[in-house]
Design a protein that fits this description.
mainly alpha; 8 helices
Length: 196
Amino acid sequence: MNTIIRKSVLGIAGLAFAGGVFAGPATAHAAPSVESTPVAVVQADKPSVDKAKLIAHGVQGAQSHVDLSDEQVANVKAIIAATKKAGMDERAAVVSIATALQESKLENLGHLGDRNDHDSQGLFQQRPSSGWGTVEQITDPEYSTMAFLKGLKQVDGWQDMPLTKAAQTVQVSAYPDHYAQWEQQAADLVAEHWNS
């Protein structure tokens, strides 16, 4: 039995005994007590993720971090679910999440008007005019992740590449090195949510 629970139970039992001794017969007409047995709650540990596998080459350069809203965390979970559905591993989820962090800060962006980069939309800022899918498709987190992963699967040796090179090969960004800054946060998110 847990030491803290045992001490608490013994302490309560001692108070009850002392109260009975000092209260004497006055408590004889009190309502009968209900005995309760303390229950220890044991939380099963989730299987752990091999963190060395998440950042296979170490992080490159200074790392950025953003605090996530519930909606952004839901998008992380959607990316992880799509990665599993695609039959890909945790490293693919790290690459995907880091890419979405760079492209949209994990916000499922619609058309931004004058601030839009051409017709880029969604978590990965994919463009309908470049063949990524319709607006409805690329603003669906599962679809857009599956489209990104399909591109990643076509990159020979992506598993052995630094994250930024793998992401850039799929995304063809004007800022190819910017994906690297999100690797640590992406790995932390995958470690936290892969088995949840």
